[in-house]
From TrEMBL:
<dbReference type="InterPro" id="IPR017896">
    <property type="entry name" value="4Fe4S_Fe-S-bd"/>
</dbReference>
<dbReference type="InterPro" id="IPR017900">
    <property type="entry name" value="4Fe4S_Fe_S_CS"/>
</dbReference>
<keyword id="KW-0408">Iron</keyword>
<protein>
    <submittedName>
        <fullName>NAD-dependent dihydropyrimidine dehydrogenase PreA subunit</fullName>
    </submittedName>
</protein>
<feature type="region of interest" description="Disordered">
    <location>
        <begin position="99"/>
        <end position="130"/>
    </location>
</feature>
<feature type="domain" description="4Fe-4S ferredoxin-type">
    <location>
        <begin position="1"/>
        <end position="30"/>
    </location>
</feature>
<dbReference type="Pfam" id="PF00037">
    <property type="entry name" value="Fer4"/>
</dbReference>
<dbReference type="GO" id="GO:0046872">
    <property type="term" value="F:metal ion binding"/>
</dbReference>
<keyword id="KW-0411">Iron-sulfur</keyword>
<dbReference type="GO" id="GO:0051536">
    <property type="term" value="F:iron-sulfur cluster binding"/>
</dbReference>
<feature type="domain" description="4Fe-4S ferredoxin-type">
    <location>
        <begin position="31"/>
        <end position="61"/>
    </location>
</feature>
<keyword id="KW-0479">Metal-binding</keyword>
Amino acid sequence: MIELILEPRCVRCLACVRVCPNDVLEADGDGLPYVARQQDCCSCFLCEAYCAPDALYVAPEAYPLPGLDAAQLLADGRIGAFRRALGWDQRKPGELDARAGAAPAIQRGHPGSPQDLHRSESYANGINRH
């Protein structure tokens, strides 16, 4: 659930407001986002993923966590952790993630995997099921 917006880090781009599927965030008169409807947050983490300056924190819990300390979250490395886990802060726009090359192999299934065996049987029976 969205918990904190760190005003000193926020660049007021409002990407978080635009990507929120439940309209949890709004912008004040100065263009600073704020949590308008915390109870509507579905913890999808889109706002955190799209926040390039890591100015907000979404907790994995589906209920409010009173008393969170922004300084402690920063010290623990939890601010921006989701973006780092996605690899969004490790490359420039347009560059491919080094892990992206594994995607076709995962989708196909390595030889002998259940996905590979299923496809082999489907092709043998004249059925293309993918």
